[in-house]
Backbone:
């Protein structure tokens, strides 16, 4: 079954299989069931499709499910005029074509019986077992509230809860929606539009997340026809106009086959027509359609290594379009999709897009989690258990990381409207990244996620006390956007008063983070009680321990007489911008009045002076290198730290213990829980500077102490 078809109204079916006449099936259903020793004719197509994927499947349970469904729905009609039994038959056929296992098909046949007939869940459990009963119950809970805008948020909330426990519930729901969309023409236009919008906003993204491309693409085309009829007609005309023309992809496909055959690579090369929405997107992107834009080449091989062998031959024998290359085998998409994507230039400059994948990858690309079968069947238990890992897949391949996260945050959503808005925003994320934790675990996050998102993904509400992070071993702000493959370590404090600041919402991308932050802020309108939760526009706090602080900007600190310059007799000043002390490398520049200002060699002011053409003056310390005992040196230090209570007190205590006097101190308002302290200090001994800086770095929460590279703020 192809996910890309040029007729969005055509049912999904294997090549060569005749179109199924649901009206004929309805007439067969009305005539009653077949004898007990054979399958009813009405589900012959379902049995054929099922056996194509599962040759050894026992069809007895399908026969029994059909008998119950047909007898229960007998006399009920659809709005289209067909017997109602044609609907569960069509839904089951869709799933059978995708390769769903027997239990899913059984539940699909029965999915409307409990809702619309006198059949009870107890009856289903007694005849078909707990697993089928669970699936039928899960789908039943979603049926009533599909229509009615006020009910929809809570409907899909329930849907996701059911899906999280067994993803097959969602598979049945998607197939159910697809058949309803195919027959939507009997409804009023306004109702068609409303159902199409819900399908577009929620069900199509969910189908994409589950990897069920065959359902997703047809749903897209059906929604496109309803919501954008003019664009749909234009696209249909474009495709129809190509109907009688020679497909330029045919010649390129022949060349590819010959190339791979000569290289000894066994491969199947197919032309894949684009579906309507795909053609529309290409036309919008490129303006004018090229002949090769109406389809793509699909190359199917046996092994993963063959995919790269094919890629090598194509890039060697054809001119590749490098910008089009993507490797989704080494880095699969969040929905299990794997393929190599490339584009090559064929004869006469025609560009063809090429997809390269194994047959197994193709099956998963078409049917997603449906193609993975029943992950709970290993121990024969009912739904809810996870299968053991197989072939390198995750422990439960039908419970991808995004779904687990979604289920977690939906429990925290305060109301249905919040859930609905957050769900749509989350589903709009079309790519997922994986970051590594320092304990060896991983976090799956949407692309664009920040350290804030990682904190809540890993620690839940404990992330309220996050004060920073290390990304790939380096300290980073909480706003840092993470990339695929990053290693992240979150730094937390155990403080009951700690809480997120409103600025965190600017960097939170995941629903879990946004809901947790918003909930905390609503519960604490006055914010946390710690000293570092001030507003970004709060006045800058200052500490002024001495009257001489007001003169700290630019004044000569320490003993300038300890410096010897190459212009004897010139007054010497130590620059306040970098406050040099022995044994710093120094250099001087003559300023107004003939004085020489001495800077540290790495001071930014030195580069500016040179750019202005100022001549440098040689300068050196007037000692032999032993500066112990040389007193009254002034230095400006900058301490970078994560905000926490008592941090300022602990820092000043460390400074006092090192016998340094604070001339002035400035504490900038916190930004993302990072605090910057600037201290101008009077040192009794220049040799004590390294020890002082080490002592300040040892204060909990301080991650860096450096010499100032700019003028210190006035006290």
Residues:
């Amino acid at each position: 079954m192809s996910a890309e078809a040029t007729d969005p109204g055509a049912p999904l079916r294997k090549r060569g299989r005749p179109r199924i006449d649901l009206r004929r099936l309805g007439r067969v259903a009305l005539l009653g069931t077949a004898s007990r020793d054979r399958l009813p004719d009405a589900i012959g197509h379902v049995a054929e499709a099922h056996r194509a994927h599962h040759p050894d499947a026992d069809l007895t349970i399908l026969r029994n499910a059909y008998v119950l469904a047909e007898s229960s729905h007998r006399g009920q009609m659809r709005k289209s005029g067909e017997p109602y039994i044609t609907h569960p038959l069509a839904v089951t056929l869709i799933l059978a074509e995708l390769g769903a296992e027997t239990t899913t098909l059984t539940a699909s046949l029965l999915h409307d019986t409990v809702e619309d007939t006198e059949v009870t869940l107890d009856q289903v459990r007694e005849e078909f077992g707990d697993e089928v009963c669970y699936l039928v119950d899960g789908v039943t809970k979603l049926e009533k509230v599909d229509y009615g805008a006020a009910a929809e948020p809570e409907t899909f909330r329930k849907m996701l809860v059911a899906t999280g426990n067994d993803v097959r519930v969602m598979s049945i729901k998607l197939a159910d929606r697809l058949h309803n969309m195919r027959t939507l023409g009997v409804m009023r236009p306004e109702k068609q539009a409303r159902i199409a919008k819900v399908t577009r906003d929620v069900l199509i993204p969910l189908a994409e997340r589950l990897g069920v491309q065959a359902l997703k693409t047809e749903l897209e085309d059906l929604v496109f026809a309803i919501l954008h009829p003019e664009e749909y007609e234009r696209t249909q005309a474009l495709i129809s106009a190509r109907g009688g023309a020679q497909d330029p992809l045919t010649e390129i496909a022949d060349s590819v086959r010959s190339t791979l055959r000569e290289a000894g690579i066994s491969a199947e090369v197919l032309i894949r027509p684009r579906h309507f929405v795909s053609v529309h997107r290409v036309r919008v992107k490129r303006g004018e359609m090229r002949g090769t834009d109406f389809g793509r080449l699909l190359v199917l091989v046996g092994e993963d290594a063959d995919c790269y062998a094919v890629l090598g031959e194509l890039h060697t024998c054809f001119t590749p379009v490098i910008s089009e290359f993507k490797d989704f085998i080494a880095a699969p998409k969040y929905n299990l999709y794997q393929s190599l994507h490339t584009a090559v230039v064929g004869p006469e400059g025609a560009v063809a897009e090429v997809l390269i994948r194994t047959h197994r990858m193709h099956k998963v690309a078409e049917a997603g989690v449906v193609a993975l079968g029943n992950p709970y069947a290993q121990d024969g238990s009912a739904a809810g258990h996870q299968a053991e890992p197989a072939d390198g897949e995750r422990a439960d391949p039908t419970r991808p990381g995004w779904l687990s996260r979604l289920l977690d945050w939906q429990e925290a959503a305060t109301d249905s409207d919040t859930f609905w808005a957050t769900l749509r925003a989350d589903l709009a994320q079309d790519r997922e990244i994986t970051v590594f934790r320092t304990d060896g675990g991983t976090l799956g996050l949407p692309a664009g996620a920040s350290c804030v998102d990682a904190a809540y993904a890993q620690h839940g509400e404990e992330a309220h006390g996050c004060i920073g992070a290390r990304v790939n071993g380096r300290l980073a702000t909480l706003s840092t956007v993470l990339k695929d493959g990053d290693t992240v370590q979150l730094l937390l404090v155990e403080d009951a008063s700690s809480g997120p600041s409103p600025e965190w919402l600017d960097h939170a991308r995941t629903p879990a983070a946004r809901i947790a932050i918003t909930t905390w802020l609503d519960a604490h309108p006055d914010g946390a009680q710690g000293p570092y939760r001030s507003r970004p526009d709060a006045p800058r706090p200052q500490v002024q321990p001495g009257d001489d602080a007001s003169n700290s900007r630019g004044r000569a600190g320490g003993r300038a007489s300890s410096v010897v310059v190459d212009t004897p007799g010139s007054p010497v000043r130590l620059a306040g911008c970098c406050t040099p002390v022995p044994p710093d490398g120094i250099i001087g520049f003559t300023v107004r009045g003939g004085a020489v200002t001495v800077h540290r060699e790495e001071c930014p002011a030195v580069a500016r002076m040179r750019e202005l053409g100022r001549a440098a003056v040689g300068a050196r310390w007037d000692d032999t290198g032993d500066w112990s005992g040389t007193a009254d040196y002034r230095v400006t230090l900058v301490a970078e730290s994560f905000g926490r209570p008592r941090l300022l007190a602990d820092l000043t205590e460390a400074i006092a213990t090192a016998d340094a006097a604070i001339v002035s101190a400035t504490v900038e308002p916190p930004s993302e829980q990072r605090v910057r302290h600037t201290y101008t200090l009077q040192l009794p001994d220049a040799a004590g500077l390294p020890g002082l800086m080490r002592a300040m770095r040892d204060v909990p929460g301080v991650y860096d102490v450096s010499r100032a590279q700019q003028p210190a703020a006035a006290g």
